[in-house]
Write a structure and sequence with these properties.
This protein is of the alpha/beta class and 477 residues long. The chain is built from 15 helices and 22 strands. The strands form 6 sheets. A 7-stranded mixed β-sheet has the order 14-15-16-13-12-18-19, with helices on both faces. Strands 9-8-7-10-11-21 form a 6-stranded mixed β-sheet, sandwiched between helices. InterPro entries: Ald_DH/histidinol_DH, Ald_DH_C, Ald_DH_CS_CYS, Ald_DH_CS_GLU, Ald_DH_N, Aldehyde_DH_dom, LUC3-like.
Length: 477
């Protein structure tokens, strides 16, 4: 079994202690990962600090050229990296059916796209005020050294979302991958670093202790974190002690509202994948489905038929649409939430029982007969389970959607776009999709409200978030 290494200053870095990475489809160990020491975190941050002035001084055009070389490397190595994603995270390797539902190959395509798009963007100086006596121009300066902490659900793609805009803006980066999905990220960073100057991109792997050491480091200028609200709160508390700015993309419990004029047959497939993409292990998946009484049974029937037709198994096998839950802790949470719903009188429309055998497999599960206040409704399940909840009228549905403290995404489903837009405007969430859910784009800002975090990613606004305003004011007379 191979032991994989961190990259610091473009050099491979082992560690005295290691831990196993496990395939969630089989339960088998597939490699060993370094458990970085505090001293190694110091070394990675020091390398990033030493490299940052020269990287910033290269200028915008040269950094764009470097990132386009990175995109070429990601494209060249997309297949082996995609296989690491499937082996570590569990999502199927390829798409399924005519819609080609995104899997690991899609994730690697996304890594390339989300590298090329930021590489093409620029933040030109902006004259914010001018009159006969003065001219004020706002420039953008990098923060310096960025600490990035990536999650396990889209381990390489979200790492790219953090790394590439930070580098484009002139920062250098130290990234810690999730301890559950480290190998693919370490390999991707190794490949990227080969076409970047030494020290510009560095990795440290390990558990939450390593992440805490990195994000609390005295020489970190900004933190980028994607993960749970609970972990984000701990990182934010530590950052506040040092007044370190942060972008936080935290948990969600996205509400999807079906309006009475929707056609269940038309929306069912998109609604299904809006909830169950990546086995429901996506922050912006639909996690609460509100339907009017008149459409309830038809929606359930359509979604159940799709769920029962979706093959579940090892993502490396051909034709698999649904993979395993990524880790035991998340698997146990999903099981507990379904059992709580069952014990409180809910109806399990399909699924609802773990599959025998190896791996963390749990079937797509539809649950009815619940209302707000039930654990499965109020807690983010982050797995292949969807509560379907009846509502009385649209005002009732909007109030229910806005009831929780999180607000990452939401969606409205209707045959009347105007009606849907009017409802969407009343929902408190960073993004509200209409007749789609979770449809992100590299040019469209994405971020949450409330306990789903703060700050945005993607596009020009996301690039601005990697910089600090720097105003130069000139007196003319």
């Amino acid at each position: 079994m191979n032991t994989f290494l961190n990259t610091v200053n473009r050099e491979p870095v082992p560690a005295q202690d290691t831990f196993e990475s496990v395939n969630p489809a089989t339960g088998e160990a597939i490699g060993r990962v370094p458990m970085s020491s505090d001293a190694q975190v110091d070394e990675a941050v020091a390398a990033a600090r030493a490299a940052q002035p020269a990287w910033a001084a290269l200028g915008d055009a040269a950094r764009s050229e470097a990132l386009l070389r990175v995109a070429d490397v990601l494209k060249e190595h997309a297949e082996p990296l995609a296989r690491w994603i499937t082996r570590e995270q569990g999502k199927p390797l390829g798409g399924v059916g005519p819609d080609q539902i995104p899997g690991s190959r899609f994730e690697m395509w996304g890594c390339e796209v989300w590298t090329r798009v930021p590489a093409s963007l620029s933040l030109a100086p902006e004259v914010v005020f001018e009159d006969a006596t003065r001219r004020d121009t706002m420039h953008r300066q990098p923060y310096g050294v960025i600490a990035a902490v990536a999650p396990w659900n889209w381990p390489l793609l979200i790492a790219i979302w953090q790394i590439v805009p930070a580098l484009k803006a002139g920062n250098t980066v130290v990234i810690k991958p999730s301890e559950y999905t480290s190998i693919g990220t370490l390999e991707m960073v190794r490949l990227m670093a080969q076409v970047l100057p030494p020290g510009v991109l560095n990795s440290v792997s390990g558990d939450g202790r390593v992440g805490a050491c990195l994000t609390a480091h005295d020489d970190i200028d900004k933190i980028l974190f994607t993960g749970s609200t609970a972990t984000g709160a701990r990182i934010s508390a530590a950052a506040a002690q040092k007044l370190t700015p942060a972008t936080m993309e935290l948990g969600g419990n996205d509400a999807a509202i079906v309006l009475p004029d929707a056609d269940p047959k038309v929306i069912a497939m998109k609604l299904f994948w809006g909830a169950f993409l990546n086995m429901g292990q996506t922050c912006a998946c639909a996690k609460r489905l509100y339907v009017p009484d008149a459409l309830h049974d038809a929606i359930v029937d359509e979604l159940r038929a799709i769920a029962l037709a979706m093959p579940m198994g090892d993502g490396l096998a051909l034709g698999v649409a649904i993979g395993p839950i990524q880790n035991r802790a998340q698997y146990d949470k999903v099981v507990a939430l379904v059992e709580d719903a069952r014990a409180n009188g809910a109806t399990i429309e399909c699924g609802g029982a773990p599959r025998d055998g190896a791996g963390y497999f749990y079937p797509v599960t539809l649950v009815t007969g619940l209302s707000d206040g039930a654990r499965l409704v109020d807690e983010e399940q982050f797995g292949p389970v969807l509560p379907i909840i009846r509502y009385r009228d649209v005002d009732d549905a909007v109030a229910r959607a806005n009831r929780l403290s999180v607000g990452l995404g939401a969606s409205v489903w209707s045959s009347d776009i105007g009606k849907a837009e009017a409802v969407a405007a009343r929902i408190r969430a960073g993004t509200v999709w209409i007749n789609q859910h979770g449809a992100i784009h590299p040019m469209v800002p994405f971020g949450g409200t409330g306990h789903s975090g703060w700050g945005v990613e993607f596009g020009t606004e996301g690039l601005k978030a990697m910089t600090q305003p720097h105003v130069i004011s000139v007196m003319k007379t």
